[in-house]
Structures are given as C-alpha cells and as structure tokens.
Specification:
The protein contains four helices and two strands, in the order αβααβα. It is mainly alpha-helical and about 80 residues long. The chain has a two-stranded parallel ribbon with strand order 1-2.
C-alpha cells in the first residue's frame, strides 16, 4: 500500500474481515513505505499520491482500521535479496 488510492480498498478489506468475525486485523506490507515519486517502476508523479509522504504509520493504521500496521524495512529488503552465505 503505497498510494493513497490503495488505502481505500485496504480499508474496505479490513472492514470486511471485521464483519466476517475477525477480532483483530494485523496488516503487513512486504515493501518499505514510499515517500517520494519514482518514474522507474511505479509511475507516481507527485508526493501527494503517496500515503506515506502524507501520513505517519499510525495515521495510516487508523485510516485503514487495522489493529497494527508494519512495513518491510529497507534492511529487510536487502536481507531478502542477499545471496546465502
């Protein structure tokens, strides 16, 4: 969930999970938050399209209605792509 427009469907999914009986919803994003535009992959023209550039992790968690929210750290990405010793 990098873009603001992705947060709304995530919010709806969290609501559906709760409606189905989930007592807790813990959201994990398998990438670091994106704060700045990038033209080499996800074509994001302006920072206002990026939710992490506008809100803290706690504010995003509140918006989507999850009990917890965590992103993969940059260190975690580097660990994941490093060849095994």
């Amino acid at each position: 969930m990098t873009r603001s427009c992705a947060a709304t469907p995530t919010r709806q999914i969290v609501g559906l999970l709760r409606k189905a009986g989930a007592l807790e919803v813990h959201l994990r994003i398998s990438a670091p938050p994106i704060f700045h535009p990038c033209f080499y992959g996800i074509d994001t023209q302006i920072e206002t399209e990026l939710i992490a550039a506008q809100k803290s992790v706690e504010e995003i968690r509140d918006f989507v209605g999850a009990d917890s929210l965590a992103y993969l750290s940059i260190g975690g990405v580097l660990d994941a792509i490093r060849p095994a010793a």
